Amino acid sequence: MTNVNNYSGNFQIDAAHSEIGFVARHAMVTKVRGAFTDFEGTATTGEKLEGAKIEVKIDVNSVDTRNADRDAHLTTGDFFDTEKYPHITFTSTDITAAGESTLRVTGDLTIKDVTKPVTIDFDFTGEVQDPWGQTRVGFEGSTSINRRDFGLEWNTALDGGGVLVSEKIALNFDISAVKQS
């Protein structure tokens, strides 16, 4: 097994082979899954994670929940207000190894005009030389946030009690990154 401390260099997220997704509870009984299809990001690190830094920028208008009406509602002022805040950003503030195959990444997540710290544990899923000679690494991670903490407050009460959209949102990351020469 490769130790995450052994990597150094500059890596670019391959958005075509990565996913930034989310899960919300809907009507108290089921889950709605979605993803952002347009994003970019970089990771830079020296040996033993010295000076490690991750930056990600997401185009919020690329939200995809497999329902056009819901996607359109998510871009309005009720939720993301993409006319004023077209991007979600993440900038790491601390990256450490939490064992040989896990990175613990803490950073500033900005949604709308609100920035809050989040911590995500990323499990290393492998390294490979792809058919084009590029070094490709994979990481998977997840965390949860309270959407109201970021000004995403719209909701509707249900007749039988409860609300239409959960406050707790799971964020899921499946990342493929390519080492830059």
UniProtKB/TrEMBL annotation:
InterPro entries: Lipid/polyisoprenoid-bd_YceI, TTHA0802/YceI-like_sf. Pfam families: YceI. Residues 10-178 form the Lipid/polyisoprenoid-binding YceI-like domain. Belongs to the UPF0312 family. This is Lipid/polyisoprenoid-binding YceI-like domain-containing protein. It comes from Corynebacterium jeikeium (strain K411). The lineage of its organism: Bacteria, Bacillati, Actinomycetota, Actinomycetes, Mycobacteriales.
